[in-house]
């Protein structure tokens, strides 16, 4: 089994070790419950066990994870989408962290397209999956996610206090002037949009509520890490300028709001990924500084 997957489960989930021990039993249970012939797991496992399967001759995907609110929100989002603009949810058991979804073919990631084609495709997907927030919704909000930045220390880390403070300032400004919230995907980037027939569909939604402009930040951060390996900072500035202009034009959104939310999301991602043993968070700060220069 993928060593990164095993390490992630043990590191990030208190009950991870126990869950890994029960994984074979869970696979047997859902194979019987949902009439599945299980195949090989996908190679790039990270925080969930995702495997190929067949049901009545149809190719499907079984996804199992440590039961948690994030998976409950994913299930709720996929139900809301109803297969329009996203992969179809076929079965779900939120209490046991299990989802059965259709398998997409050819299933290639959006990152295979040339840069100048990706924004148009992403805008089409966004417009299909954005929905008004249902009554009595249990989706987390942008404000819930903000706690990570709000609680992050302003000293004693490698992230300058002025960067954190500017992100906080942009967050407060954007929230105070936000349009009506919708249900956002929450992690809509090149690796979470796959080719399906002649079109493209979203997978793996986080399911959060917030204004539409917030959604664009995840795209601006990606494809990771190729974005930083392909372009110099000067070239990346021009790439991001074109992206922001395209999003603003296609979606009728404010260029300034895209840039301010984008800056905030880069910094929030740096906070989430901050580590003294890895410097990936430094790329997030570079990305943030590029967007700041475009304001």
Please summarize the sheet with the most strands: 5 strands, antiparallel
Strand order of the largest sheet: 1-2-3-5-4
The domain count comes to: 2
Supply Rg.
19 Å
Individual helix count: 11
- Tell me what portion of residues adopts beta-strand conformation: 15-25%
- CATH topological fold name of the largest domain: Aminoglycoside 3'-phosphotransferase, Chain: A, domain 2
Estimate the global geometry from the Cα principal axes. globular
Overall CATH architecture of the largest domain: Alpha-Beta Complex
Q: Average the pLDDT over all residues and give the rounded result.
A: 97
CATH superfamily of the largest domain: Aminoglycoside phosphotransferase (APH), C-terminal lobe
CATH class of the largest domain: Alpha Beta
End-to-end span in angstroms?
46 Å
H/E element order: HHEEEHEEEHEHHEEEEHHHHH
Instruction: Kindly state the percentage of residues in helix.
Output: 40-55%
Protein name: Streptomycin 6-kinase
InterPro entries: Kinase-like_dom_sf, NH2Glyco/OHUrea_AB-resist_kin
Pfam families: APH_6_hur (PF04655)
Keywords: Kinase, Transferase
């Amino acid at each position: 089994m993928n060593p990164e997957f095993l390490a992630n489960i043990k590191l990030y989930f208190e009950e991870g070790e126990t869950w890994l021990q029960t994984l074979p039993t869970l696979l047997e249970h859902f194979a019987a419950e949902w009439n599945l012939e299980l195949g090989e797991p996908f190679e790039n496992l990270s925080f969930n066990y995702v495997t190929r399967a067949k049901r009545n001759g149809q190719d499907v995907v079984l996804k199992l994870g440590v039961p948690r609110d994030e998976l409950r929100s994913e299930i709720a989002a996929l139900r809301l989408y109803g297969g329009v603009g996203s992969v179809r949810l076929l079965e779900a058991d939120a209490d046991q962290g299990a989802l059965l979804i259709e398998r997409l073919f050819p299933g290639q990631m959006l990152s295979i397209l040339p840069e100048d084609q990706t924004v148009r495709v992403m805008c089409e997907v966004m417009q299909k999956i954005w929905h008004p927030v249902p009554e009595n919704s249990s989706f987390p909000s942008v404000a819930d996610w903000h706690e990570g930045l709000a609680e992050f220390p302003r000293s004693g880390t490698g992230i300058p206090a002025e960067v954190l403070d500017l992100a906080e300032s942009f967050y407060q400004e954007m929230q105070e002037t936000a349009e009506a919230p919708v249900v956002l995907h929450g992690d809509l980037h090149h690796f979470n949009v796959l080719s399906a027939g002649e079109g493209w569909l979203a997978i793996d939604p986080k399911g959060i509520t917030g204004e539409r402009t917030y959604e664009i930040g995840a795209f601006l951060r990606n494809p990771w890490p190729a974005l930083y390996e392909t372009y110099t900072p000067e070239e990346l500035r021009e790439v991001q300028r074109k992206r922001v202009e395209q999003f603003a034009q296609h979606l009728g959104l404010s260029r300034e709001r895209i840039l301010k939310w984008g800056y905030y999301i880069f910094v929030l991602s740096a906070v989430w990924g901050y580590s003294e043993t890895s410097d990936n968070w430094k790329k997030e700060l570079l990305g943030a500084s590029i967007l700041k220069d475009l304001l």
